[in-house]
Structure formats: structure tokens, C-alpha cells
């Protein structure tokens, strides 16, 4: 769920512009910019995703035997850990309703890869941490608690079930009511962007793959293979020598180069790595 969607839903619910599942204006849509609208269908589709997230984290709480009030710290990673407003995310149900602290950590996978490149010995430390963690895999698709909760989330987001009725059904099924929202006292944003500046040595690689090269008896250097390459990956040099960029070439899934050779001597499989 994007940051704009989270903000639109949160502010719409808080202001009363959205009374699920409807937008309370004549057009039943919100205009964001010229030609950009947020419709009732968008509200419901966003709600399905937000409801799944809330049902998911409440299922995990139930499985480990803790309540909403027991979760006091939230860590957000990825795009949500960079750009999403945690207060608005909480209002939409994307993070727990009672929190003391929220830490937005950004792209943790990228930063882990960055740290490992700088210090490969960190891999042993990370493995030790992983070995110390015990966990049970919970498949939501076959989990009865998740199913019960998500059915109610769908009723809330797409049918307009009042929160009072939602909580009553939760309590009847033994899951307890959702507490009132308590915004976190502390929000710490670790990074400013999804991919932070990692130093002046960063440069763009013009060529990612390897260069393939080949010479073929009977090749006339007519360049029909080069002109027929849809990815512009092939170049015919003096000799004639054929060079192919592997990062652009579609390989045997294409074979336009072979099909365009009038002498039928070019063979993609015979190319060798040049560098």
C-alpha cells in the first residue's frame, strides 16, 4: 500500500470524508490532481490489503499468547520503513493500535548487503543471531484465527460494519476487542531515503554482463545479424568478429541473429566469453 493511499484513507476516515465503504460527496471520489482521483473502489481495495495486515499481526499475537497492549515497540522496514507516516498507518490498522515507540529502518536488506560487502566477517555474526532465534511458521492461508479475523475485516472495509459490531463479533469468537488507538510517544526515523548515500565511490555500471565473442567460417560480415537483433546486443567487427553483450541478449529464446544469417553459419551456442 502506497504512502498516498495510506494518507488518503487515514485522513478520510479521521475527517469523515470516508464513511466505509463510501466517500461522502456527490461524485463519490476524491480529486487529488488533474485526472487523478481516489474512488470508493480504491477505498475498498486498499481496505482489503490493510485489513489483511491487521488480521495478520493480530493473528501472530494470538498465536504467541500476547495481547494488543503487550506490543509496545514496532519496527518498520522497506518502503513502509522509509516513507509511510506511522501515525496514519496506525489509524488505518497497518501497525498495532497501542505503541510506545516506532522505529523506521528503511531498506534493511540493502543495508545488510552493504555492511556485508564492507565486512564479510559480519556474516558469522548474523548467522549466530539467526541461530539464536526460534520461530514457528504460521501459514495464514490455512489458519482459522486469520480466516475469522479477515472475514470481519472484509465486512468492516467493504460492507461498512460499524466498529462496535466488529468488536462485538471479535469478542463473541474469543479474540477480544481492539483497544482504542494510543499513538506512539516516540517515532525514530533512521534513514531519509530508501537508498541512502553510501559514499562518493558509487558509480553506474554501463555493462553488467559479460561480452561474448565468436568467429565463424563462411561469415561474410554482411551485418544482417546485427541489424536483425531486436535488443541491439550484437555487433559485427572487422575480421569479421561477432561480439554479443550478454546483459542485453535474449539468448536462445530469440535466435533472431541465427535466423538472419544468410550463410547459415552463425551459431549462438558457439560464442565464447571475451571478458
Structural key phrases:
alpha+beta, 9 helices, 275 residues, 11 strands, three-stranded parallel beta sheet, Alpha-Beta Plaits
Topology summary:
Blueprint: H1 3-15, E1 18-19, E2 22-23, E3 29-33, E4 36-39, H2 40-64, E5 73-77, H3 86-92, E6 101-106, H4 108-118, H5 122-132, H6 144-159, H7 163-172, E7 186-189, E8 211-214, H8 224-227, E9 234-237, E10 241-245, H9 256-260, E11 272-273
Give the SSE order as H and E letters: HEEEEHEHEHHHHEEHEEHE
Share of β-strand residues:
15-25%
Report mean pLDDT, rounded to a whole number. Answer: 89
Write out the strand line-up for the largest beta sheet, numbering strands in chain order: 9-10-8-11
Anisotropy-based shape? elongated
Number of strands: 11
Biggest sheet details: 4 strands, antiparallel
Uncertain stretches: none
Secondary structure class reads: alpha+beta
Helix content range: 25-40%
Number of helices: 9
Distance between the termini: 43 Å
Please give the domain count.
Answer: 2
Radius of gyration: 28 Å
Sum this structure up briefly.
This protein is an alpha+beta fold and 275 residues long. The protein is 37% helix and 16% strand. The longest helix is centred in the N-terminal third of the chain and has 25 residues, at 40-64.
Question: Mind explaining what this structure looks like?
Answer:
There is one protein chain. By secondary structure, this protein is an alpha+beta fold. The chain has two domains: 3-189, no CATH class; 211-273, Alpha-Beta Plaits, CATH 3.30.70.20. Helices cover 37% and strands 16% of the residues. The chain has helices spanning 3-15, 40-64, 86-92, 108-118, 122-132, 144-159, 163-172, 224-227, 256-260, and strands at residues 18-19, 22-23, 29-33, 36-39, 73-77, 101-106, 186-189, 211-214, 234-237, 241-245, 272-273. Helix 1 crosses helix 3. The longest helix has 25 residues, at 40-64.
